[in-house]
Amino acid sequence: MTSAQDLRVAAELAPPRAFDAACRMVVDYLARVVPLDAWAVTRVADGRQTMLVTADSAYGLEPGVSAAWTDSMCQYMVAGTAPRIVPDTRAVPDLERIACTSAEQGIEVGTYVGTPIVSGDGSLFGTVVGMNREPVTTTLDDQEPLLDLLSSLLSSVLEADSAAVDTARALERAVSDAETDPLTGLLNRRGWERWLAREDERFRRFGDPASVVMLDSDGLKTVNDTEGHEAGDRHLRHTAAVLRSAIRSTDPLARLGGDEFALVVQVGTEDAEGLVIRLREALDASGVPCSIGSAPFTVSEGFPGACVAADTAMYADKRARRGGDRT
Fold first, then answer.
1. Spatial separation of the C-alpha atoms in residues 165 and 284, rounded to whole Å
2. Contact at 8 Å (CB) between 320 and 301?
3. Contact predicate 35/55, CB 8 Å
4. Which residue in 114, 104, 103 sits closest to 69, CA to CA?
5. C-alpha distances in angstroms, 280 versus 153, 268, 287, 321?
6. What's the CATH architecture for 3-166?
7. Angle 50-55-61 from CA coordinates, rounded to 5°
8. Residues 76-89, buried b or exposed e (16+ Cβ, 10 A)?
9. Which terminal residue of the chain, N or C, has fewer Cβ atoms less than 10 Å from its own Cβ?
10. Which residues lie closer than 8 Å to 35 by C-beta, 6 or more apart?
11. Contact (Cβ atoms closer than 8 angstroms) between residue 238 and residue 244
12. Which of 216, 218, 259, 317 is catalytic?
């Protein structure tokens, strides 16, 4: 591809500011000019590769479909041990092995094309990937400059969009009194719901890892009944302080009302599970035990699905801790 052709492609794909819109344009463009059975932009995080945007005519790939990174052909492309363009996966042993495993699951990959998308700090964000069921007989090698161009465009849009989101989040953290619980200083239910609604689209756009954690105080009713509501208020403020001390200042923490708390931890599933263990230990040690449930954010279900799953897990934990008594 000549430099003049590069410029025409860049002009045609002049990227919008939103990363998801740029991904859609790139995938649709590739599906048109390099018609493989499937093209996708993926996110690699928390040991998994998740489809963010797809153009698929053969595999049934949809946004939100996820697989272990260790099962992906892209891992070898990123590591530099496999080419970015492989017309016949049987020619590369590592790719052939994964292709055989995938074929057993009904997913045949005869041709693989991939290129990395990097974040502003140079770390791997994800990939642009193309696949075809049968090996492609026509030459694909001359498409490598196009892949370079498109991945660079996406990396540039990603950096700009991420910076814009970070700036917006910093401004949004200065919440109004109407979104703050006056007793604990945390977000109230209104602030929590507004945060979730605002961030749901952003997290779906980037495929960032996160988990919702729901908590319910195990001892507030007893404190209120035996020591009075003023002592109950101190109990809630202490619970909020323990929670706040255990998480990052950028992770939203809310008192939803009564003795219910909620937070979003913006880390991978394994780290979130470790945090839940540390939260439980810190709360128990501080004399403010809570029933806790957590669930990961997914591109397909978003924060609404994670909240429902975390709430269900929290009530299951409460029944277990109270011998079947949910109250």
1. 36
2. no
3. no
4. 114
5. 44, 18, 11, 12
6. 2-Layer Sandwich (3.30)
7. 45
8. bbbeeebbbbbbbb
9. C
10. none
11. no
12. 259
Residue 284 CB neighbours (<10 A): 13
CA distances from 317 to 67, 89, 178 (A): 29, 47, 32
CA distance 314 to 102: 36
Alpha carbons 240 and 263: distance in angstroms, whole number: 11
Domain boundaries, the chain: 3-166, 173-321
pTM, full prediction: 0.77
What is the structure's pLDDT at 165?
Answer: 84
Q: Model confidence over 230-276: pLDDT tens digits?
A: 898 998 999 999 999 999 988 999 999 999 999 999 999 999 999 99
Q: Is 46 a catalytic residue?
A: no
Ranges 5-9, 183-187, 247-251, 322-326: which has the least confidence? 5-9
* Distance between CA atoms of residues 262 and 240, nearest Å: 10
Select 173-321's CATH number: 3.40.50.2300, 2.60.120.10, 3.30.479.30, 3.30.70.270: 3.30.70.270
